[in-house]
């Protein structure tokens, strides 16, 4: 007596047949007037079911979706369908409605799924929980709090500037570069000959955020401590696009014991998992003995506030790890990438570098003058140089996705149906020739005496905007301004003959640049 009335082959054939029926019925549905997008005046819906899918997946595989979108927009106008229920918009006038509408457009999109089992507030679908958790951190990152941090930031910036020197001397804690073998081999090409600027900048931003947020600096610029996740975070960016759609991989990664990670998992995939383990251990240490950790610092840290919460919020360990991961991840890579891009441009446009130096000399006449954030941030040309870098080389150029409200919404005379994923990109906004004439030209002058009410200011969105925009913007600006001021007051930078960095980049949501930036510094006489 057969237990199953069908032959296994019949079952397989049945499954395949139902899959085909399912796929065909989806196509028919998408083309029918019943589909929520049917009324939507976008390009050919035939394209959506045939060519788009092909392009869509290829683009994700290549990690160049925004760059593909740039081509498609030229042909098809400002709204293109990149998936059955997903629109990409490249009309700046939509920006305020989508991103600055006080949580009206939620983040319930697959684009935040890469985070796996940890619980990051970024991408938290609950408005109340997001607001409360963000509220714990934001006072630490206000402009006033950052201004008080000037000396702490400068301590690390001065280490950075000393290592760049053709004749590096003593830096933090009486060490010399020769005392730090690992630092020397990883970032110094040949003593006195040149440095790996990209790697050094990652160490700088890592030192700043770890000290401010977690009481103890990683001391990546002043010790031989091996914080191995800083480089893997950068490597992981290469696959960030894949992780969005392959979140089970992130779960699997979290389950692999720490000691196995480094041996069995390719470096691109393990950055976030390594960060998760390290911060998890740090959090366990704090929870077991909070007094010991507190004794290391004179100020209250972000970490301490997250752990202790306030009377209304108690974060789970998953949430503590998640929020710490975002602070460290977002706090190191984005800022380091931006300063590297700015310094790279100073090397390839030497006349602009000269101008930068001359403006600095006006405020800091001697090279031994103490650089301070308060004085440096008043130098208009530095701000213009950095703004132009953030415009032309946004560290988060990829799509930032939101979902339309359930009932749908009218925007700029168009109806966006409910629960549709809508996204815009800082890179495409910044390449809009109507707002930024000759957009591919690196031209800091366009920001000199720029009217705060102008369109170029309104649509300058490297940090995104609104309730979910960047919380670390003030810290990022302070680091970028002081690093640029201290470096270009003292040195003339030029590309090292072995430099691998070009202007090529890939859209991995974050900006993924190819090749390390190697430079040589020549010290000014006075
Ligand atoms: C040039 C440097 C930076 C750029 C361009 C940048 C850009 C961004 C952008 C575009 C977002 C929004 C992402 C989204 O909506 O999905 C964001 C969020 C965030 N950034 Fe930054 N960021 C920078 C530096 C920093 C720094 C230094 C920190 C840490 C202190 C930081 C911490 C965060 C956090 C925690 C969020 C999530 C905010 C939330 O969901 O409430 N960022 N950043």
Automatic annotation (TrEMBL):
Cofactor: heme
Recorded GO MF terms: heme binding; iron ion binding; monooxygenase activity; oxidoreductase activity, acting on paired donors, with incorporation or reduction of molecular oxygen
PANTHER family named in the record: CYTOCHROME P450, N-ACETYLTRYPTOPHAN 6-HYDROXYLASE IVOC-RELATED
Matches recorded under PROSITE patterns: CYTOCHROME_P450
Pfam entry (one): p450
Record protein name field: Cytochrome P450
Regions that span the bilayer: 6-29
Binding-site positions, heme: 470
Keywords of the record: Heme, Iron, Membrane, Metal-binding, Monooxygenase, Oxidoreductase, Transmembrane, Transmembrane helix
Domain of life: Eukaryota
Family: Belongs to the cytochrome P450 family.
């Amino acid at each position: 007596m057969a237990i199953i009335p069908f032959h296994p082959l019949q079952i397989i054939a049945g499954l395949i047949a139902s899959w085909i029926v399912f796929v065909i019925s989806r196509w028919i549905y998408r083309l029918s007037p019943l589909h929520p997008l049917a009324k939507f005046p976008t390009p050919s819906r035939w394209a959506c079911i045939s060519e788009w899918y092909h392009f869509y997946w290829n683009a994700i595989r290549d990690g160049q979706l925004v760059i593909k979108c740039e081509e498609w927009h030229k042909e098809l106008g400002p709204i293109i369908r990149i998936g059955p229920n997903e629109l990409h918009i490249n009309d700046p006038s939509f920006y305020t409605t989508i991103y600055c509408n006080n949580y009206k457009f939620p983040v319930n999109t697959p684009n935040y799924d890469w985070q796996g089992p940890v619980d990051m507030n970024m991408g938290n679908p609950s408005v109340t929980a997001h607001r409360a958790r963000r509220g714990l951190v934001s006072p630490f990152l206000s402009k006033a709090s950052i201004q008080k941090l000037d000396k702490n930031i400068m301590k690390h910036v001065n280490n950075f500037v000393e290592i760049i020197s053709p004749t590096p001397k003593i830096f933090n804690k009486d060490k010399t570069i020769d005392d730090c073998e690992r630092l020397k081999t990883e970032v110094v090409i040949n003593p006195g000959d040149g440095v790996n600027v990209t790697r050094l900048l990652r160490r700088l931003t890592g030192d700043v955020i770890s000290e401010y947020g977690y009481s103890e600096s990683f001391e990546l610029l002043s010790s031989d401590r091996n914080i191995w996740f800083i480089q893997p975070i950068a490597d992981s960016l290469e696959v960030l696009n894949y992780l969005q759609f392959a979140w089970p991989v992130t779960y699997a990664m979290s389950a692999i014991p720490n000691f196995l990670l480094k041996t069995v998992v390719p470096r691109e995939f393990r950055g976030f998992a390594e960060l998760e383990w390290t911060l998890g251990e740090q959090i366990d240490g704090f929870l077991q003995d909070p007094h010991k950790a507190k004794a290391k610092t004179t100020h209250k840290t972000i970490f301490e506030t997250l752990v202790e919460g306030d009377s209304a919020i108690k974060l789970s360990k998953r949430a503590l790890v998640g929020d710490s991961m975002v602070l460290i991840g977002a706090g190191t890579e984005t800022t380091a990438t931006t300063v590297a891009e700015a310094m790279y441009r100073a090397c390839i446009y030497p006349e602009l570098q000269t101008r930068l130096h001359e403006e600095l000399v006006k405020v800091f006449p001697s090279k031994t003058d103490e650089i301070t954030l308060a004085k440096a941030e008043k130098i208009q040309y530095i701000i213009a140089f950095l703004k132009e870098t953030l415009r032309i080389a946004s560290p988060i150029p990829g799509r930032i996705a939101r979902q339309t409200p359930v009932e749908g919404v009218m925007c700029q005379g168009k109806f966006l149906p409910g629960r549709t994923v809508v996204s815009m990109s800082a890179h495409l906004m910044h390449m809009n020739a109507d707002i930024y004439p000759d957009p591919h030209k690196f031209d800091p002058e366009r920001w000199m005496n720029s009217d705060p009410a102008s369109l170029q200011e309104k649509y300058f969105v490297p940090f995104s905007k609104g309730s979910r925009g960047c919380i670390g913007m003030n810290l990022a600006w302070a680091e970028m301004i002081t690093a640029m001021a201290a470096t270009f007051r003292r040195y003339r930078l030029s590309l090292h003959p072995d430099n691998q960095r070009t202007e090529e980049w890939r859209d991995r949501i974050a900006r993924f640049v190819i090749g390390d930036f190697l430079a040589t510094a020549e010290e000014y006489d006075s």
